[in-house]
Queue: 2 jobs
Job 1
Amino acid sequence: MAKDTQTIQQFKKFLAARREHDIEAQIAEAERIVRSIEGVDCRKAFSQVKKRIQKTHSRIPFLNILTRVAAILFVPLLIISVLVFYKQGVWHGKEQFATQKIANPSGIRSEIGLPDGTKVWLNAESSIEYNVPFGLKKRDVKLTGEAFFEVQKDEQKPFQVKSGKVTVTVLGTCFNCSAFSEDNAIEVVLAEGKVKLNTNGSETNKEFILKPGQRAVVDKTTDQTNISSGNIEKYIGWHEGKLIFDECPLQEVARRLERWFGIEVEIADPEIGDYKISTTFENESLRQILIMLELASPIKTGIIPARVDKTRQIQTKERVIITGKN
């Protein structure tokens, strides 16, 4: 009993000391325990524990002590569990448990934070996919549609955006990638830093290095890549809520309005389809934009409200009809 009393006193001193530890000290303790675990002979330890359990000494005083120990040691034990699980996942190469997909419907844009600290502005009718956990060995993202990336720099793990035959590789930079399935080309516009563009899978399999202010257009049919320099604001301004049209044909304006607002736009007069529009809108409503387009262009617009199709049990989109003024 004297030995048990002495042991209990030692536990009490240990608990009093543990209460004064901050979270950093507990983490450091957990790391030391993890390192010591790696050198433990598990079979020998189990045998010793089994022998002790078989002894008939009273254990009642220790139950209360062990309960208090469990509560105080919860944080380091939890940390140990996470560290061991993480290390096992890395050591055995089991880095992919699932695929995360984020998609925006028509009319919706979103800002996304990836686990590595990278920011992504995802346009309407667009989606990205990546492996979970993300960034243990590589940082690969699959893009459909359009997104603006502000990549967290990590020289050991290049960030890759894949879309069709095109792969964009970066270390840390800001760039825009547009790869809508219905478009004839894939566009990459570099705002800051440097990116490597690879047309892998094509006959040419060429590699290009882009500098800030450059725009690369990869033709989906011919795999030809055209690189140009100039004002890139009209290509990347959308992620800041701007709709910028610079000598943009009315047909393209209609397509971008459809994505932006989740509507349908019909150009009823084919003769005005190639009319060029040059203007900038920032956070205006659809009706405000249509009014300004009518004032600055030889067009008229009409709106057909959305309705519920009782036959198909769906809600139709709001429609905009564009005609010439004459």
Job 2
Amino acid sequence: MLEVTDVEIKHRLEFDNPWWEPDGGILPHIDEAPRRAYFEPFLKLVNETSVRRAVVLMGPRRVGKTWMLFHTVKHLLDQGVPAANILYASLDNPVYSRIPLQKFVDLYMEIHGHPRRPQGLYVMFDEIQYLKDWEQHLKVLVDSYPSIRFIASGSAAAALKRKSEESGAGRFTDFTLPPLTFAEYLRFRKENPDALRQDIDRLNEQFMGYALYGGFPEAVMNEEIRRDFQRFVGNDIIDKVLLRDLPNVYGIDDSQELNRFFAHLAYQTGQELSLDGLSKHSGIAKNTIKKYLDYLEAAFLIYRLHRVDQHARRLQRVTRFKVYLSNPSLRTALYGEPERMEIIGSVMESAFMAQMFTSFRSDLLAYASFPEGEVDLVVLKHDGTILDCAELKWSDHYQSGNYLYNRLAKMAAFTDVKVGFLLLKSKSGSFKIGETDIICAPMSLLALLRSMNSMDLVQQGIDPRNNLPFLRPPSSDGGQGA
């Protein structure tokens, strides 16, 4: 049987590291691409070379992880790190199949004549989940080469998260890169958020564009990709995540079943679902459905919103819940642009919820269902009591005394909350129902303000999910609004 030779591997490494060539560097189109808002805090971790830890960059496919690694290479070169001190290898390349990480290091040091105990090297392994037992290999390298900064990235986030926590205690620092937020989307499109805040119609147009196409940096910047969005994104997600990554990680026998299940969830984004209903529709056993939901959520493809009662208490038996796509444009990738108003409303609601889940801890977000009705979104304090509640409707067709107001007022009365939010398409205003203030605001505006606040915190190196998740807009001083 023919085997890939060391010479072939070295040639591929030289090709994948163009900065090793005289006057070489990262490819111009990558260099010119905007940096993610998460780049600076990620770079701060990379630069903490005094800490003997590998940085593990996790996130879904097509959100810019590889670009972030190349932008890191550019920063290091600009800071005077010699080009020969930086190695990049993408482990999904067939040439690298089944090669242990130690061999990459050995061949890299041979190419450049580095000593056996080198100083000041940066080694980046992209798509590391393609190496079996990667966490054991990486841990050994971190222990063996304290003066090499190891950086890894991968898209099979479920496996990366689990294995780094189990095997990399004290050796790995995890960093999660989510899909583009609405504020990042506008920055990539060179739109002025302050100007958009004064023109709600234009802001809604941009929010619609974000919901349909906006979670993937390449699609935002490339019109050709948007024109063939289903092939570019849909096939990549289906072929690589649902049919390959997750089945390989979890030993799923029927990958087509998982694919069909995810497609059904994507179509139902924002709807209340039940285990019984999903099982009857799909013919899949409820225990298997529970596992599929766990896998899809761990892989950053979906978020689950759990149900509470009118007193904001979680139900002991979780049989009903809502599912949202973590990246709302995945629905476009699978089904094309929606045409029915009720589906458009669900997609826009998903786009808003993506900002909430990216910004805040998921266990502090829920929806309420009680005999008098349902409330779309309940925001909890860390002690489990209610902070805010809101109805989300991508429409302005409502009248005073509408049942939406009454549901908000009843929920507020049950929990002693004095404010309920009605997030609409364009209209603003406020009024009272009994002791409850009902505040109406455009959904797109609140999504923008929340995502801008989160982006500011991220760029300061602060995890926004640790903040108390007020629905109301941030105040001008950067704190939470009243």
